[in-house]
Specification:
single chain; alpha/beta; TIM Barrel; 2 domains; 8-stranded parallel sheet; 13 helices; 12% strand; globular
């Protein structure tokens, strides 16, 4: 699937909304997007209701990613946090993610316990340590099109100059794509692109350090991928919260019906009739 993303990047910017489970991934695909992003925060917030501080294990991420990938026919990029350890752990992660059909992974240069990239108080590993992780990821992949993305959080800890320096070190280590996290202005994105000669990934998250920038603006700046990690997740949570408050107050869901996906709509989304058809076909063979 990495080859698919590379082909898409050759045609223009690739927009990847975040998915946090199989059904949200189906919605991303149905909306017409050609690829999706599996956010570590989306998984740990959604599955465990816990913060994004490196609490999910590698096998848990692999398992959840596998459910999502099996639900859709579009390629998926996965948040690999800090690689779940040092070089040997990174190699195991890459092999495991390739095994469930992931198209690529990004690894960040934070120390554990890590934090959301848009929060203060982050700590970085040395550029050399991160370069070793990138090199080990490249060494471990079996598919040369599996995409290794190096994320640097240096802008929020040091400055953009240091972020650029680190990005170029990570490129030399073999990264295919660079992900500069938490840049704080359009001018910084432009500067980063001028100084880093590589495909770049932009994170257009909400409530963070980065101002709202449109997909077309990112494309004009020369970025190859833009992710929207938690847009759908946050909208969903707000909608569910309001629905439950109304249900508690009124004792009926009657006035919420118009806001619901119907039973028919849900069954169409999950291909319910296809399963019934397969069941009937197999059953008829033994009559």
């Amino acid at each position: 699937m990495g080859k698919v993303i590379k082909k898409l990047m050759g045609k223009g910017i690739v927009v990847m909304p975040g998915a946090f489970n199989g059904i949200s991934a189906k919605l991303v695909e149905k909306a017409g997007f050609k690829a999706l992003y599996i956010s570590g925060a989306g998984l740990v917030n959604g599955v465990m209701a816990m913060p994004d501080v490196g609490l999910l294990t590698m096998t848990e991420v692999q398992t959840q990613a596998g459910y999502i990938i099996n639900a859709v026919n579009i390629p998926c990029i996965v948040d690999g946090d800090t690689g779940f350890g040092e070089t040997a752990n990174v190699m195991r992660m890459v092999k495991g993610l390739e095994g469930v059909g992931v198209a690529g992974v990004h690894i960040e240069d934070q120390e554990l316990p890590k934090k959301c990239g848009h929060l203060s108080g982050k700590r970085l590993v040395s550029p050399h340590t991160m370069a070793e992780k990138i090199a080990s990821a490249v060494e471990a992949r079996k598919d040369p099109d599996f995409i290794i993305i190096a994320r640097t959080d240096a802008r929020g800890v040091e400055d953009i100059k240091k972020a650029i320096e680190r990005a170029n070190i990570y490129l030399e280590a073999g990264a295919d794509v660079i992900f500069p996290e938490a840049l704080q202005s359009k001018e910084e994105f432009i500067t980063f692109k001028k100084e880093v000669n590589a495909p770049l990934l932009a994170n257009m998250t909400e409530f963070g350090k980065t101002p709202f920038i449109t997909v077309s603006e990112f494309e004009d700046m020369g970025y190859s991928i833009v992710i929207f990690p938690l847009t759908g997740f946050r909208v969903m949570l707000k909608a569910v919260q309001e629905a439950l408050e109304k249900l508690k107050a009124e004792g009926t869901q009657k006035d919420l019906i118009e806001k619901m996906l119907t039973r028919k709509g849900l069954y169409e989304l999950i291909d319910y009739n296809d399963y019934e058809g397969i069941d009937k076909k197999i059953s008829n063979k033994f009559k």
